[in-house]
Specification:
The complex is a heterodimer. Chain A has one domain: Helix Hairpins, CATH 1.10.287. By secondary structure, chain A is mainly alpha-helical. Chain A is 83% helix and 0% strand. Chain B has helices at 2-19, 23-43, 47-71, 81-95, 97-100, 115-122, 124-150. Classes of the chains: A mainly alpha, B mainly alpha. The interface between A and B is large, with 59 and 71 residues.
């Protein structure tokens, strides 16, 4: 049983979802899967190499991940409310039709 | 054997979270992913990390359920039972390389620093600073949402 391979599989699933999915919530779930794969790799390596320092670093990783998740979710809700859809392609199409620049978005 | 079962559950729930059409079911499958991750941490002996993962997962999922309801388009197509079974089979197949492949490395070369020493003696300043950063982020989000509600820019 190798957890490095397992975390690599998780990373691959997350990257695939990030590249192919167009729903905002699915994109966010893909980001969460990538973060889970990274932390899984970190935990298993820190357990093998002396766990105290690795676990302490992971507290930092978790809190940062939570803050990033909160910001992303707030942005998703605002964008979804503004454009009335949560499909990325439709959001880009609407913003092009209304003539909004990327800075305004 | 327990690691293999947890790994299969982790990959299957990750696949379901990503490929199910209903947003609420996807969030439920993501809850399974967090749960299996916590169990793997416990099986590896990292109890503190498992507790943190569980707490963070519960908080994230509570917000995700709310935003999933808000973001989901109402007339969605439903995932059939056949495609759900296919997704679970794909998850089982994807978890097989972790059983048969391995990346060799030198284990046991680390130090014997305890969790408390590492958290407070080595990383004490970082822990306090990150608490301040999280507080600022929470305050910023609250201010932005309050401005949005009151109609200002």
């Amino acid at each position: 049983m190798d957890f490095v391979i397992l975390s690599l599989v998780m990373l691959s699933i997350g990257i695939y979802g990030l590249l192919t999915k167009r729903h905002l919530l699915k994109v966010f779930i893909s980001v969460e899967l990538i973060a889970t794969g990274a932390t899984l790799n970190f935990v298993t390596l820190s357990s093998a190499m002396g766990k105290g320092l690795g676990e302490a670093f992971l507290i930092l990783v978790f809190s940062t991940d939570t803050a990033v998740s909160a910001v992303i979710l707030a942005l998703l809700v605002i964008v979804s409310k503004k454009y009335g859809t949560s499909d990325i392609s439709e959001i880009v199409k609407i913003s092009e039709e209304t003539g909004e620049s990327e800075e305004e978005i | 054997m327990i690691f293999e079962i947890l790994s299969i559950g982790l990959i299957v729930s990750a696949c379901l979270a990503l490929f199910l059409d209903e947003a609420v079911y996807s969030v439920g499958a993501l809850a399974g992913t967090f749960l299996f991750t916590s169990l793997i941490y416990i099986a590896n002996g990292a109890i503190y990390v498992a507790i943190f993962q569980f707490a963070v997962g519960v908080g994230t999922l509570a917000i995700l359920f709310l935003s999933g309801e808000m973001l989901s388009d109402k007339p969605t197509k439903k995932t059939s039972a056949k495609s759900t079974v296919a997704l679970m089979s794909a998850g089982v197949i994807l978890s097989l390389p972790a059983f048969f492949l391995s990346v060799s490395g030198s284990a046991g070369a680390g130090s014997d620093i305890t969790f408390g020493d590492a958290l407070w003696n080595l990383r004490g300043i970082d822990v306090i600073l990150q608490a301040l950063v999280i507080l600022m982020v929470a305050l910023g989000i609250g201010i932005v949402l309050h401005q949005k509600r009151s109609g200002g820019k």
